[in-house]
Amino acid sequence: MLNSIISFILSAFILFPSFVTRFIDNNEKFRIVVPESWELCVGDSRTIECVFGESVTDYTLVWCVEPASVAAVDEWGRVTAKAVGTATVTAKGNGFSDSVQLNVVSSPTVAVERKQTVNFSGQAAEYTDNLQKVVYRFHHGHKDIPSYVSSVKDYSSFKTAVTADGAVWEITDYGVLRTDNNAADERDKYQRFMGDRYFYGADSTKVRGIFADGNNGIWTVTDAGITHIDMISATGTFKAEYLSGVTQDVVSRMGYVNEAVNRGGTWHPIESDNDGLWTSMYGAGELMRYALMRDNPAATPEQIAQAKKAAYLSSEAVLMLYYISMRNGTTEAYVRRQTNNNVPGSRSDRWLSADALEVGGNATYKVPSKSPAQLFKEGKASLFFTLSTAKYKTEGYYDPLNADDWSDPSSNETVSYARRTRLIEGFPVRTFSFKHDNIGLTDTIYWNINADGTATGLSEKPPHSEGYLLNGENLRGYNVDASKAVPERLWNDIVGAGYNPEDIIYKTDTSADELVGHMFVFKLMYDIIAPEDPELKQLLIEAVDSLAQHLSDNSYMLLDASGQPTSWGNFGRTVYCAGTSVAQSPLHALVLLDVFKTAAYITGYQKWENEYRMAALDPAYEYAEVVAQYYDRMVAAIQITIGDATHPILANLIYALKETSFVQTVYRLVVNYSDEEMAMLGFYNIFQLEKDEELLELYRDAVDQWWRSIRYSENPLWYYIYQLAYPEKQIKDAYGNNILKTASWSLSRHPADLVQYLASNKKRDDIGVVDLSGIGLKTDDTLSYNIQTSGALPELNSDSSIGDYIKYFLKLMNLDWAVAAPDERAFHKYNESSYQLDSWYNTNRMQGSTTYTLPFWLGMYHGMLAE
Questions:
Q1: Is residue 210 within a helix (H) or strand (E), and if so which, with residue range?
Q2: Taking a C-beta distance cutoff of 8 angstroms, is the pair 224, 235 a contact?
Q3: Distance, CA of 509 to chain centre
């Protein structure tokens, strides 16, 4: 028995060495946390973060700075630089104090400027030579239908066809099957044609007859109409240029690329919440296209000019998001505190409390003494030893010392509330449009620019919806300083010289999605067009520097006009320590690190490299380790759910089984594919810029965890970015295929048009989806599998027995997973899963070309794809 106890204790130390060591060594009582060689430029500010030991109960601080001629500090620890020199900043509490040195400079310390591109060092994959499917649609009786099709009335002899390339076509229950025994890639031997992507009608349309067209394509006849599927030979470059041209002509709106909608037979580009992200992704591809064309002696002047035009327009459109609000200076914000609520979005206060501090009240509330990474480790240890998930939720933190000093300003108009100064300059907007073009305000925050140099909140989320207030604030009617001028070049190129600021309406509540997209395209802008355009280079430096300054001054929060964080813009250490962020914090920590790393690269300022390393490695933050906790945190979120609903022993069992197909399948069913998109864009910059092997080890560990799901997706963009994390290594996906060859094949099978046609059919004989709708579970994010090798899954419904469920999930764990070819499934952006077969069907919506052009040009640019 004694031996068992000793063995158990030793196992605990082996399993949790970091936890045990940190627990023993955690004698730190108080520390001011600032970057190494901390400096501010004259006029700049920074709100200082502090770490308190576990024994501290009163976090009240008194701040001072000497000499006062060099810097000033307010009661909340916000230091403002006044004059060049050195100052000492001190914070004193009840029985503890600490001091740090500040260097105030006239201009930032500049590190050595460096251009850096990490390319694949192996053999590039050749672009797969697949015929492209171009579909023409005709109503019955149309004059352009050839007589050998239009004259036929009896189709019984036209159920099969052989085309000039030797392919055999035959009508099936789901549509038409093309068999090519000479296909260079086994995946192209059988190609299935379904839905109104290929026929004159949707999913239920039956093909009556098919006719070879004399070349490599066919004509198809249905009761609804006739289509000509023209199979043409086209290079990957031609396809990319063509699709980008359609995007520029139809989808682009002042340079912003999202979608277009068909109204009355005419396509109209529309805005969305994520215009900044979608435009960044599209623009990144066009920048790489321009770099390739510019440096290619064989490229024609027309090719270079078209690439340059698209690259510059997209780049300037994204840059404009940092200038169009014209926000200037600071705002006086309510003092709110971190909360530890349930899932974000379920309450109006989101990250910070709806309550604010009353004048004269005590602002003290309990905050963690450890980093988010360390607290999560302790949560795992606690569950193992105590069978309780409470530690995961960091229960006991964030309660105010005196709750009576806090109340809700929206319901206490006679009470006076404390205020603190917050920086609003450097805040990028989501998108903007002309007032006369805005077709009804959606449930997002808009701002109206006024002639007097202010902007006014125009709308907020509807009162009946969740999240009506943005962190306690109703922004309708709220005024903010908008006195900064927009650079003339951006105004003329994007808006137009004939317009005034009052003609503009812009959208905020900007999120992490936007920032990660901006950094993605900004890095490429700096590398590709900044060297040839000094004016644009300076605008880029100012934009990214202003964002980094905004975040560093505001405790890593992206603050809207009220001085409160946006819905998905809080990157602070306290929020990552909250139970709300168990699963979310690795992704958002990556976004913040990406911002500072990219800012250091583009500006050359040493202060942003120091900021980055502090956030990544300082014991108060350890964000790089948080990034590398991704899969464990996803499993922990499942543990918490199961532990709360059933028993903690089952939660421990989930962790013990985390490497099994069962847990990994559950993980893939619940993963957010929009998060995958954000993560991979962030990892692109990180692996391009980071040289520190200690950090690279953490980041590779992290991207490997995302790869658990992505390796099934056959997504060419994610495959290329993952390859760049291992530029000297050959990598295979979940199906045993070389990822560069699969990416090339996937691009060759990308649809040759951009309309969201239906491309699948529930009668198809090869691929099926996991459908849990019968038991009320959302199935937009699903998984797909090979019917021919696995057999169809049985249906579950409300009458299914426990035995039915057990059989279903046992079969689910042993399916042969598969992904339909891109031109045989739903067409959508990469923030949705590639397993969807028939979701997002809408023939009145057209996507931008990003899903093809970005991975194609990225693969070419980094030496992973060749033609």
A1: strand 207-212
A2: no
A3: 15
Cβ atoms within 10 Å, residue 78: 21
Q: Model confidence over 185-240: pLDDT tens digits?
A: 999 999 999 999 999 987 667 999 999 999 999 999 999 999 999 999 999 999 99
pLDDT band, very low/low/confident/very high, at 669 (cuts 50, 70, 90): confident
Start-to-end CA span in the chain (Å): 69
- Non-local (6+) Cβ contacts of 117 within 8 A are 527, 688, 862
Q: Residue with structure tokens 């397993």?
A: 835
Q: How far is CA 578 from CA 180, 466, 555, in A?
A: 56, 21, 15
In sequence order, which residues have a C-beta less than 8 Å from that of residue 390 and are 6 or more positions away? Answer: 382
Q: What percent of the chain has pLDDT over 70?
A: 91
Q: Between the CA of residue 207 and those of 32, 155, 763, what are the distances in Å?
A: 72, 10, 13
Asked whether 312 and 334 are in contact (CB, 8 A), the reply is no
* Cross-strand partners of 207: 222
Strands 125-126 and 218-222: unpaired
Count of residues for the chain? 867
The total of other beta-carbon atoms located within 10 Å of residue 307's CB is: 24
SS (H, E, C) 488-525: HHHHHHHHCCCCCHHHEEEECCCCHHHHHHHHHHHHHH
Q: Judge residue 669's burial from the number of C-beta atoms within 10 Å of its C-beta, 0-12 exposed, 13-18 middle, 19 or more buried.
A: middle
431 backbone φψ class: left, alpha, beta (φ>0; ψ -120 to 50): beta
pLDDT tens across 414-436, in order? 899 999 999 999 999 999 999 88
Of residues 700, 684, 713, 725, the one with CA closest to residue 831: 713
Cα–Cα distance, 352 to 335 (Å, whole number): 10
Q: Tell me which H or E stretch contains 375.
A: helix 372-386
Label each residue of 272-289 as H, E or C. Answer: CCCHHHHHHHHHHHHHHH
Query: What DSSP string describes 576-610?
Result: HHSGGGTTTHHHHHHHHHHHHHHHHHHH-BHHHHH
Cα–Cα distance for residue pair 409/332, rounded to 1 Å? 14
- Burial code (b: 16+ CB inside 10 Å, e: under 16) for 618-644 equals bebbbbbbbbbbbbbbbbbbbbbebbe
Q: State the Cα–Cα distance between residues 755 and 634, nearest whole angstrom.
A: 35
List, for residues 98-118, the tens digit of each pLDDT value.
Answer: 999 999 999 999 986 777 899
Cα–Cα dist 166/400, whole Å: 77
R_g (Cα) of the chain, nearest Å:
29
Put simply, whether the predicted model's pTM sits higher than 0.85 gets the answer yes
- The helix (run of H) or strand (run of E) holding residue 442 is none
Q: What is the mean pLDDT of residues 500-515?
A: 94
Residue among 735, 815, 736 at smallest CA distance from 771 = 815
Q: Which of 336-350, 447-461, 466-480, 594-608 has the highest mean pLDDT?
A: 594-608
The continuous run of DSSP H or E covering 848 comes out as none
Over residues 152-177, the pLDDT tens digits come to 999 999 999 999 999 999 999 999 99
Beta partners for residue 209, in sequence order = 221
Where b means 16+ CB within 10 Å and e means fewer, 167-206 reads bebebbebbbbbebeebebebbeebbbbbbbbbbbbbebe
The CB-side HSE value for 470 (13 A sphere, CA atoms) comes to 30
Contacts of 560 (CB under 8 A, 6+ apart): 424, 427, 445, 470, 473, 475, 508, 509, 510, 566
β-strand partners of 210: 220
Distance CA 169, CA 172 (A): 10
* Separation between Cα atoms, residue 232 and residue 131, nearest integer Å: 5
Collapse the DSSP code of 781 into the 3-class scheme (helix H, G, I; strand E, B; otherwise coil) and give the result: coil
pLDDT of residue 345: 42
Mean pLDDT of all residues in 48-59: 90
SS3 663: helix
